[in-house]
Amino acid sequence: MGATPGFAAWQRLDHWLKAHEPFWSSVPFNEPEPAWAKNHPELYQWLLALDDASLSQFQPAPLALAESLTSWLPDLAAGVELIQMDDLSGESAALPESAASGMPGRKRLQAGALTGSLKPLDRPLVDWCCGAGHLAATLHQASEQSVTGLDWDAALVHKGLAWMQQQGHGVALKQQDVLDPLLVLPQAHHWVALHACGGLHRRLLQQGIAQQAPRLSFSPCCYSLFAETPDWQPLSRQAAQTQLQRPLPWSLLRLAVQQTATAAARQTRQRRRLRAWRLGYFSLYPARFALASAPASLASEDFNAFVAWADAQSARQTPATHRSQAEAQGWQQLARIERLELLRHCFRRPLEIWLVRDYQLALEEAGYITRLGCFCDPQLTPRNLLLDAIKSPSIPCHD
Ligand SMILES: C[S@@+](CC[C@H](N)C(=O)[O-])C[C@H]1O[C@@H](n2cnc3c(N)ncnc32)[C@H](O)[C@@H]1O
């Protein structure tokens, strides 16, 4: 059978990612001298020579760098076109603050934006991985349809039910493992998910297709979490034609969600300090070893406290000498890494869209008409993609 409507866009992205594979498949934090540096020494030196002001200017939108790099990577700028997405946002359906007490402000607005972009809502709804049910309550208010929220976390469901009662929202929440292979949902429902992580939203898609759900709408996030396999596997027949090197480990694809558009400046500072200290700590040893992620609270202490924490984690006793040189070295290494990451981060959004376009193709192959685009501004959440699919009675399944 032939290609479905979304195939051409997926294929353009696949070719572009293939053409630039060396630049996103090496991780600067692990490989301070990436393999591509040998073939592109001038590009490497140019990046390392960027001053702090340029670094901060490019960090929020790394593809803006593409124009400066045309002499080395003439096709990089084409990525800007490939990540242009339709604007699916509608009028916000956010609950008024008076009906949303206890709901974090950003969550209230995200749920309102997603709901607004899905209207009209004309059938009963399921909120997949509903947490405390904030989206469920928003969907209910905007549609007056019956809404059932599913989440496996009993404490969250309990908290959500108490909140529904207190606020007068008539929504049912149920404790349910959505990965349960025996799960069957009532027919004729519209299944919706806001930020259900990797394997959880893929389950919604696959289960929804299997049950021929009339409408499936989700905003995906954290693609590598709850992964069914260690490596990426296409969900669609068409994306199985990818030119990218496989196996493609999920650990590499974590790049797709390494965006901190909503991180407060304080969190960014804390994260940088912990990264520099980690590098400084490792500089005291001939080789790196496994070390857990440091708790954010450690960032308000000093390098010695970090060393004590890392020693306890790794059953080592780092000598008290050379600490200040090690800390300085950590900061120097971080400066190099952040500059090399600028180039790698050009591929974050393209990789995310490449992943989601595979989902779109799978839905099209199953006879759905799809819309893929953004439901809100990235400042509200960088995970702002929405895939909305309606089962068409007239389009046969392409299996
Ligand atoms: C990132 S949160 C999103 C929650 C909510 N949709 C929101 O936007 O606030 C992911 C949710 O998935 C739930 N979850 C994780 N694994 C699950 C499973 N196997 N079955 C059902 N829910 C699950 C978690 O308890 C959590 O509430």
- Name of the CATH class of the largest domain: Alpha Beta
Number of helices: 14
| CATH fold description of the largest domain | Rossmann fold
Strand order of the largest sheet: 1-7-8-6-5-2-3-4
- Characterize the largest beta sheet: strand count, sense, and whether it forms a barrel: 8 strands, mixed
How many domains comprise the coordinates? 2
Quantity of strands, as a count:
8
Question: N-to-C terminal Cα separation, in Å?
Answer: 9 Å
What Rg is obtained from the alpha carbons, in whole angstroms? 23 Å
Named once each, the bound ligands are:
S-adenosylmethionine
What does this entry show, briefly?
By secondary structure, the protein is α/β, with parallel strands linked by helices.
Structure description:
This protein has helices at 7-19, 21-24, 41-48, 52-58, 78-82, 105-118, 134-143, 154-167, 198-210, 250-253, 265-282, 303-314, 323-345, 348-365, and strands at 86-87, 125-128, 147-151, 172-175, 190-197, 215-221, 368-374, 385-391. The protein has 399 residues and is an alpha/beta fold. Helix 6 (105-118) packs across helix 7 (134-143). The chain starts with 6 loop residues before the first helix and ends in an 8-residue tail after the last strand. The site of S-adenosylmethionine has 19 residues, from helix 7, strand 3 and strand 5.
